[in-house]
Amino acid sequence: MRDPEGMFPEGTGRPDGELVLLGRYRVLGELGRGAMGTVYLAEDGELSGRRVAVKMPSAVLARNPRAVSDLKREATTAMRLSHPHIVTLRAFEASNEGVFLVMDYVEGRTLEEILLEKGKLTEEEVREIFRPLAEALDYAHGRKVVHRDVKPSNILIEKDGTPLLTDFGIAREMKDTLTRMTGKLSSGTLPYMSPEQLRGSPPSPAQDIYSLAATMYECLVGHPPFHRGQIEYQIVNEDPAAPEGEETPLARSILRGLSKDPEDRPGTCRELVEGTPALRGGKRGRRSAESGAGRGAAPGGGGRGRRVPAVWGLLLILAAAGALFLLRPWAGGEGKGTGSSPGRRAAAPGKRAISPPGKKPPASPEK
After folding, report:
1. Mapped to the 3 state alphabet, what secondary structure does the chain carry?
2. What residues are labeled active site?
3. Pairing mode of beta strands 89-95, 98-104
């Protein structure tokens, strides 16, 4: 590839006009460009011509020492990750030939491109794509790494259908730097940002869970949860419309993932995708239990609303049995009992059935 626009510093070209970075990465062509920078396809001369993607930040970022330092920190963190569903970041380079990142080249399309073509996906397709991605995010969270920018354009689908996450922390860092420098928020990311992210809270796995839920919502519905009007206000203050098929476990789980309070969201990305309840102690567990009680008869709820009538029915049966037992000496002439009060014996099961959870019923008096 030649450099007709003067994008690369002097010294990166060879006599034949080809561009070679650091004497190693031969640039073959441009893959894409945007406000954050440009991505090029290149061959790694030290790895037998293996194809890689070279991401060069925009000039305004590359010339800012703080931006370069922050980008290097995020890249160093991302290079610790090794997972089959995460695009591997190979190197961060900063020299007189420019600032750039080198990562594996993925031959395929972004999820954003697929959605532009298909409009939306089925639940089966959503689960097939997001199960591996949830596994990848949970893996990263277990190593204290937060993606911070989960959205369709950062999800790559290989030709064989394998989904991959890219740009762990990298794109978000560049966007945050541009926001600091220009005072403008990146509109391409806003619909997937959590309320606490908009407030400037420190990165957390709960933010990735929200962004993953917003991305899954878009796959099912055809657009993000909030995509018109004052999006920032809506993210912080309004509830999203339920996706079609609200009663399915996946749809309900996505809505949980979009909760305003991080504590009300599924505890892991796997829980989000599988639609499994977060049964644990602490604030999230208590709120889930309270929510389940309110939906007693709803599918997938705690079932508590159905258990209460069953308990009362059992008590009525036991009470009737106890009354018949008390009347037996008068009706059948069996004047003597068995040495214990039939009334107490009939009442004891009732007491056990309505004892509060965690408390044992009073022990019967010893003979």
Report:
1. CCCCCCCCCCCCECCCCCEEECCCEEEEEEEEEECCEEEEEEEEHHHCCEEEEEEEECHHHHCCHHHHHHHHHHHHHHCCCCCCCECCEEEEEEECCEEEEEEECCCEEEHHHHHHHHCCCCHHHHHHHHHHHHHHHHHHHHCCCCCCCCCHHHEEEECCCCEEECCCCHHHHHHHHHHHHHCCCCCCCHHHCCHHHHCCCCCCHHHHHHHHHHHHHHHHHCCCCCCCCCHHHHHHHCCCCCCCCCCCHHHHHHHHHCCCCHHHCCCCHHHHHHCCCCCCCHHHHHHHHHHHHHCCCCCCCCCHHHHHHHHHHHHHHHHHHHHHHHHHHHHHCCCCCCCCCHHHHHHHHHHHHHCCCCCCCCCCCCC
2. 149
3. antiparallel
For the question of whether the overall pTM of this predicted structure is more than 0.90, the answer is no
d(CA 39, CA 50): 16
CA–CA separation, 196 vs 331, rounded Å? 72
Which residue matches tokens 């099912």?
220
CA angle 298, 299, 302 (to 5 degrees): 75
Pick the range with the lowest mean pLDDT from 24-38, 60-74, 180-194: 180-194
Summarize pLDDT for 285-318 with one digit per residue, the tens: 434 333 333 333 333 333 434 344 455 566 666 6
Q: How many other CB atoms are found less than 10 A from the CB of residue 173?
A: 24
The rounded distance, in Å, linking the Cα atoms of 213 and 210 is 5
Cα separation, 255 vs 265, in Å, equals 9
Residues 354, 198: Cα–Cα separation, whole Å: 46
Residues in the chain: 367
Q: Encode pLDDT of 174-188 as tens digits.
A: 777 666 666 666 545
CA distance 103 to 105: 6
